[in-house]
């Protein structure tokens, strides 16, 4: 860039997309600061397992110089997919990766985030720095407003702060809408030792049993952990209607078992013997397409830009967004040209991906469909926990 100084770049949100953007900027010697509202990298679980696609997530990791480190942790065997009959647990469909197939290997989200964090210069991420909003200053720069009342000015603010972004309102009035589908998260530890039969049922990757708009998913994570989800269509406040407190584990268990009455006990093992409680995960999505008028000094990436149902694209696209934006910032003549070039590609790509995910969710969890078992088709979309 032709300027007397490097531009001041702020990334809001230390998720996969924002961190990948910061990593690529640092590879090219560009300063960047990441602001994260959480107090530390380990304050909470980072979610389940992700399938990294060769043409998006893996491409981003190559650009970030982290592909080899990713490969050391990735699980190609995690591409296995098993579809079971809900009433009998009989295997209806079985997809196994071919030898050498690494098109979409799995990796725990927390492991992947750790790989990127470790690659950044010490002090890049400022933890416990919650952003409350962004104010464009009219001269191509923006002011970050923090929850503690302080402010900092930047030449570019990148909103990488997820579904409920505090940066997005400076560009768009859009807010996420409830999709009508809720996931209830479930976890089982030490599965190969304590729950060997269920572990064999799941296999090395993902297991799904489905009847109409009700489903059970279970996904193999690293370190002997299986993360599962009971999924169904319901009002967003379904637990209130049912008179449930999600912190009342036994009451939620009873409700879910009743919801899946008649399902094979081998599948219901996931509900009966989970470690810890149940976590409600209603699915939200931004309007499709989500577009905005360009505003100098500010842009979005990842879920902040294109929140969609978690069917295997979100994390991959966020990381690709991050690398493409960073690459534009180090190759285009100025910040505004870089952001315009990035947005011209990202907005079109994300709109098509969001349409695919919306259609995928309708297929996976069809509204008003009679409850019936059966295979759900090959090449299933992978689930990602956001």
TrEMBL record:
Subcellular location: Cytoplasm
Taxonomy, superkingdom: Bacteria
Residues binding NADPH, per UniProt: 44
Catalytic activity: a tetracycline + NADPH + O2 + H(+) = an 11a-hydroxytetracycline + NADP(+) + H2O
Principal localisation: cytoplasm
Example of a GO MF term: monooxygenase activity
Region (Disordered): 363-386
InterPro entries: FAD-bd, FAD/NAD-bd_sf, TetX_monooxygenase
Gene Ontology biological-process annotations: response to antibiotic
Pfam family, one: FAD_binding_3
SUPFAM superfamilies: FAD/NAD(P)-binding domain
Function: An FAD-requiring monooxygenase active on some tetracycline antibiotic derivatives, which leads to their inactivation. Hydroxylates carbon 11a of tetracycline and some analogs.
HAMAP family: TetX_monooxygenase
Subunit description: Monomer.
Protein name in UniProt: Flavin-dependent monooxygenase
